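Folding follows sequence. Below is one example:
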Amino acid sequence: MLAVLCSLILNWPALKTLDDATTAQDSKDRSVRNLKATLSYDGTDFSGWQVQPDAATVQGALASAIGRVTGEKVLPQGSGRTDAGVHALAQVVTFVTESSVPTENFLKALNDILPKSVRVLEVTEAPPEFHARHSARAKTYRYRIYRQSICPPFLARYVWHFPYRLGEQSMASAAALVVGEHDFTSFAAVDPEMERESEAASNVRTIFSSNWERSDDELVYTVRGSGFLHHMVRNLVGTFILVGKGTLQVEDITRILKARRRSAAGATAPASGLYLVSVEY
């Protein structure tokens, strides 16, 4: 017995090192999960996606809900930063957690906590390298314009009410001219956040499809592209409206693109009519 005790004492440093290594390994192997969530939200009462001090944001509401479920301080990353008042049918979000809560329980718990204007549609496990914004390959946005003289009160928060005369065919022809790879500086608002991230950020984007269609009492613009600049879709819509009114001609769209100057394009359309429809990976 004495010999065993002496052996333990003599080998204590090595045993302690082994114990420390085992503890560190256990900590290192603690399951870290990358979760992907798909959200739908009514953006009317939010100051946009991105968290801001003293303002209600979608990112802030989601971060708070995740924190209540996991006990962790987590800042979820979205596929893009929708503006104040802009809606989403399927915003994609990723966040990292050490929580072992099953994804189906995450879905239920988050929807129990979040305001009714934000719904989590799905929560799934994602590979460690997957990122909602950096991994995105294409996005689709939709803009709705209500054309009748009186807008129903239940639609007012979700459309741009524009009952005035428009050349809708001219607008469709103008929309087709932005398809392809272009420098969209003329349609981009200054984004201070992006400027801080990268002073040399390119304003070149590729638009895969761009079209206007009639849907009963609404004129709907749908655009799919590799990515979009700050206010880009709303600035495109505001410019197409000028074509519809006859203030601009269809061919002026090409001139505006080449100008690479925000003042060359039309005013920014209201946020209420814009929706992030889907994100592709």
Remarks:
- The chain has a mean pLDDT of 89.
- Strands lie at 33-41, 77-78, 87-97, 118-126, 138-146, 160-161, 180-183, 204-215, 218-225, 274-280.
- The longest strand covers residues 204-215.
